[in-house]
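Case 341 in the screening queue. Each case pairs one protein sequence with one candidate compound; here the compound is nicotinamide-adenine-dinucleotide. For every case the pipeline is the same: read the inputs, emit a complex structure as tokens, and attach any notable structural observations.

Predict complex for case 341.
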Amino acid sequence: MKEIVLVSGGAGYIGSHTAVELINAGYDVVVADNLSNSDMSGVEGVRKITGVDVPFVNVDCCDKEAFRKVFEQYNFSSIIHFAAYKAVGESVADPMKYYRNNLTSFMNVVDLMREFGRPNIVFSSSATVYGEADELPVTELTPRKPATSAYGNTKQMCEDILRDSVNAYEGLKGISLRYFNPIGAHPTALIGELPRGVPQNLVPFITQTAAGVRECLSVFGDDYPTPDGSCLRDYIDVVDLAKAHVVAITRMIEDKNKTKYEVFNIGTGNATSVLELVNSFERVNELKLNYKVAPRRPGDVVSIWADTTLANEELGWKAERPLDDTLQAAWAWEKNVRGIK
Ligand code: NAD
Ligand code: WQD
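Case 341 output:
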């Protein structure tokens, strides 16, 4: 009998890539999503890539009675919980939308996993929990800073809910994965990031500018205290990130976790500036991007990148895909979406 993994939010960007890697690793997958920030194309892409007719349930994880039915129907041992809203700016403008969705859905996950005696929870956390860190690169022991957005606060609160719950309740185990900056797309170009409206993140804005959907990319600030004046980030390929979830789930299923609750940074360990990323995108895809330097974006941290020693040594996971390949995949996906040859 294959182990079943429930992927909540599995129609979305990272969830769909993770569903593919779980299937590649021999797991059965059930996707649960309310399509609030996605559509069925993600699930169809997963089915096409894997040749598996992955079951999909349209459910709001905040609706406990409806969500309970998924637990009744499928006997999964493990959940990877991606389902959340993720727009930082929107969360500042409408915090209750974020607290209601991200906290309620996660508390339902913990309650139902307990109720049904299902042990393993992987939570999608974020490097945003570190804020403007005092030491770089950040390790898992680097203190979290008070969150500057409701979104960031929900990530810190969910981490704490998971830690406290697995420590208190027999039979539960948890891993929080703190993603750095996920970018790119599947090499088949069948799944990728599909932002609604104007993209807030750098790479979708770059690919949409290259595709002519946006006129000009603004590089937010070139006067930061960094080598070229633009911000430094740790850009992690989405397929590498997806594989980190597979090893995290496997670790818990095989009972190899050292403590009931664990936290891992998931990044490359490399710092890349905005201008470097833009230049690499132009070079590997042999095109010119229309961009200009614009004022700093309020709320941006100057620099953050990961110390990935713990994930490398404990999970046996390491980012593998070169940034150039990731940027080619991002462009191939955008071209596919726009019907560009
Ligand atoms: P996404 O929006 O593409 O995927 C999230 C999915 O969850 C969507 O398909 C959405 O429809 C679904 N969803 C939201 N609320 C739901 C609910 N109440 N019930 C059921 N489904 C619901 O986002 P993503 O980029 O794939 O992010 C996945 C997770 O990773 C999120 O928790 C996000 O906060 C976290 N994360 C993302 C990034 C990033 O830069 N993309 C970085 C760090 C952490
Ligand atoms: C990267 C760099 C921008 C757009 C956000 C969330 C974080 C996490 C990942 C979820 C920054 C610059 C961007 C543009 C630019 N998400 N930029 N022009 O801000 O590092 O992280 O996504 O957990 O919580 O805050 O990512 O892609 O928005 O920005 O110059 O049009 O690109 O200033 O330096 P960020 P990003």
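Case 341 observations:
- Residues 9, 11-15, 33-38, 60-62, 82-86, 101, 105, 124, 126, 179, 182 surround nicotinamide-adenine-dinucleotide (ligand 1) (CB under 6 Å).
- The chain has eleven helices and 13 strands.
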